[in-house]
């Protein structure tokens, strides 16, 4: 034990150390249709409530490097994942999802899944079209052993995320 | 505005998500003192220690005597840094909670800690279960936790027993009068709240007495003398400063002569000067708040006390102006633990061994003992007020 008055206070960076939060919320989703409807609505209400919110599309459009994009996810306290039928059609949302689950496990990023017109069970078990789309997306980016690795990582991330308590939009219909 | 039915339902969902997000973030500053004299420099020093720290979890102790500004300092640090954490909790008045809720107190504290961080209510059956829950739910989270006014090691064991319970980057701040507890816990740093120096003391006193940085000309000398007797203790400066507010030179001088006969380490006696100057009904209100109404809503308390014909509106205002009670967030009444100690001492002083003769009872055990032995004073007025206060107690106990 040390008495504070004895220690000099040079400015190192315990408070500034990772994770260093810049955003309150990151919204992860995929699909133009759901983006236009639900996500843009959610985004604008969050902004109105002065919650610093980041959404995937806009930043990718600005040509942001993947690595930098992943850093911004890690700089968010809360991740909202909006699962829909088209969620697995893109590797982009899946890469983000992987990062989110990693952040949840390293520093406790808060994950709030929303199931938008999709059964949570479908996400949990990855069946039917949801699985087909997942495999197609993976084939577009990877092959051979890498493909197997990516698929198993994403499936694990999907199962983890679907097991977290969130909202099922069908409860509101 | 017209919404097609699906978007109307979406709107409801969006509303729910946003309110959950707001609850989780909860960007709300704690209320600190009205006149923060020299506070910033202390805040900087403690934050410097936190930043200097390199290991996984940083535990900091703030140690000093009652009334020296430990809680104020902890609140100011909390306000400065809480936004950099994923979750946070400020557990106030741990000593008092444990005094009141003897058997369930640690469970209650654990439940509060869990709720503050997770924003959902968990029922804790046993302290063992509470410790496991805290460990399992917090071990990957970067948290800010403040444990205020700790007085037993068990409280620390059950709330932050092990560094392994918390995630990388967690900061735990503990305020206490007992440095031994901090040694036992092996905190990384201890910050001692030292007495205020002469200039700081005079400034704090002047803000409370004259609403200005320096004493008004006429009262300069007597103010300096009074400050000398406060021993650099912020609480004494605040209470005696507020007492001096709007008083004549003569009244201040008579306070000074009272101070002169109190020995230096008798803080409670110095604070008591302010209590003794109150009107009869204000004293009653002070003692009632001290025993039954801390943490209760001001409006609710006013209503009950008015029912006892105590003119509570004016009375409470006077007590607030004198810095004897405070209105905290959500309009709840608060009182400094030392002032509370003083109030209870006043109630006990003439009948130390006979709770039945006290004007108020606040420990469940005393109430039960007195009722069982029927040791209530036969004096009818006494009896009336006693019974009335038993009702207060049941209110306090149940909530």
Question: What does it look like?
Answer:
The complex is a heterodimer of chains A (173) and B (399). Chain A is built from seven helices and six strands. With 173 residues, chain A is an alpha/beta fold. In chain A, strands 3-2-4-5-6 form a five-stranded parallel beta sheet, with helices on both faces. The longest helix of chain A has 19 residues, at 144-162. The N and C termini of chain A lie far apart (58 Å). By secondary structure, chain B is an alpha/beta fold. Chain B has 19 helices and seven strands. In chain B, strands 2-3-4-1-5 form a five-stranded parallel beta sheet, with helices on both faces. Chain B has a two-stranded antiparallel sheet with strand order 6-7. In chain B, helix 7 (153-160) links the parallel strand 3 (143-150) and strand 4. In chain B, helix 2 crosses helix 3 and helix 9 packs across helix 10 (220-229). At the A-B interface, strand 1, helix 1, strand 4, helix 4 and strand 5 of A face helix 1, helix 2 and strand 5 of B. Strand 1 (2-3) of chain A pairs parallel with strand 5 of chain B, so a sheet runs across the interface.
């Amino acid at each position: 034990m040390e008495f504070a008055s004895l220690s000099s206070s040079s400015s190192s960076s315990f408070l500034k150390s990772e994770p260093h939060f810049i955003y309150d919320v990151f919204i992860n989703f995929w699909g133009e249709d759901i983006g236009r409807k639900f996500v843009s609505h959610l985004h604008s209400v969050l902004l109105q409530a002065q919650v610093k919110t980041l959404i995937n599309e806009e930043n990718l459009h600005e040509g942001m490097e993947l690595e930098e994009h992943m850093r911004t996810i890690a700089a968010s306290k809360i991740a909202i994942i909006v699962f829909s039928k088209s969620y697995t059609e893109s590797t982009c949302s899946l890469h983000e999802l992987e990062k989110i689950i990693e952040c949840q496990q390293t520093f406790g990023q808060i994950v709030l899944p929303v199931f938008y017109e999709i059964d949570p069970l479908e996400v949990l078990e990855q069946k039917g079209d949801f699985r087909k789309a997942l495999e197609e997306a993976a084939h577009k980016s990877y092959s051979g052993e890498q493909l197997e690795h990516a698929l198993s990582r994403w499936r694990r991330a999907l199962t983890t995320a679907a097991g977290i308590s969130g909202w099922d939009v069908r409860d509101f219909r | 505005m017209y919404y097609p039915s699906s978007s109307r339902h979406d709107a409801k969902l969006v509303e729910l998500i946003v309110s959950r997000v707001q609850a989780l973030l909860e960007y709300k500053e704690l209320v600190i003192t009205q006149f923060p004299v020299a506070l910033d420099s202390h805040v900087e020093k403690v934050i410097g220690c936190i930043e200097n720290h390199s290991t996984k979890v940083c535990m900091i102790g703030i140690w000093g005597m009652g009334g020296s500004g430990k809680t104020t300092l902890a609140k100011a640090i909390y306000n400065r840094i809480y936004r950099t954490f994923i979750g946070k909790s400020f557990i106030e008045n741990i000593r008092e909670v444990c005094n009141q809720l003897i058997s369930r107190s640690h469970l209650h504290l654990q439940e509060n800690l869990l709720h503050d961080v997770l924003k959902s209510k968990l029922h804790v059956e046993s302290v063992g279960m509470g410790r496991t829950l805290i460990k399992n739910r917090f071990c990957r989270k970067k948290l800010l936790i403040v444990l205020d006014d700790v007085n037993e090691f068990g409280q620390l064991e059950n709330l932050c027993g092990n560094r392994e319970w918390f995630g990388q980057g967690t900061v735990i701040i503990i305020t206490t009068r007992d440095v031994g507890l901090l040694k036992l816990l092996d905190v990384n740093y201890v910050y001692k709240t030292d007495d205020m120096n002469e200039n700081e003391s005079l400034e704090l006193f002047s803000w409370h007495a004259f609403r200005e940085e320096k004493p008004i000309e006429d009262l300069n000398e007597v103010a300096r003398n009074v400050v000398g007797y406060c021993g650099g203790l912020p609480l004494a400066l605040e209470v005696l400063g507020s007492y001096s507010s709007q008083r004549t030179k003569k009244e201040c001088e008579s306070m000074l002569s009272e101070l002169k006969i109190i020995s230096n380490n008798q803080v409670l006696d110095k604070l008591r000067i302010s209590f003794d100057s109150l009107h009869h009904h204000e004293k009653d209100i002070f003692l009632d708040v001290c025993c039954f109404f801390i943490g209760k809503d001001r409006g609710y308390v006013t209503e009950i006390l008015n029912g006892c014909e105590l003119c509570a509106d004016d009375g409470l205002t006077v007590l607030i102006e004198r810095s004897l009670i405070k209105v905290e967030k959500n309009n709840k009444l608060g009182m400094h633990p030392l002032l509370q100690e003083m109030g209870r001492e006043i109630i006990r002083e003439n009948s130390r061994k006979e709770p039945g003769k006290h004007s108020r009872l606040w420990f469940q055990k005393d109430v039960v003992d007195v009722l069982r032995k029927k040791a209530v004073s036969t004096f009818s007025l006494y009896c009336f007020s006693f019974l009335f206060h038993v009702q207060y107690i049941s209110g306090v106990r149940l909530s």
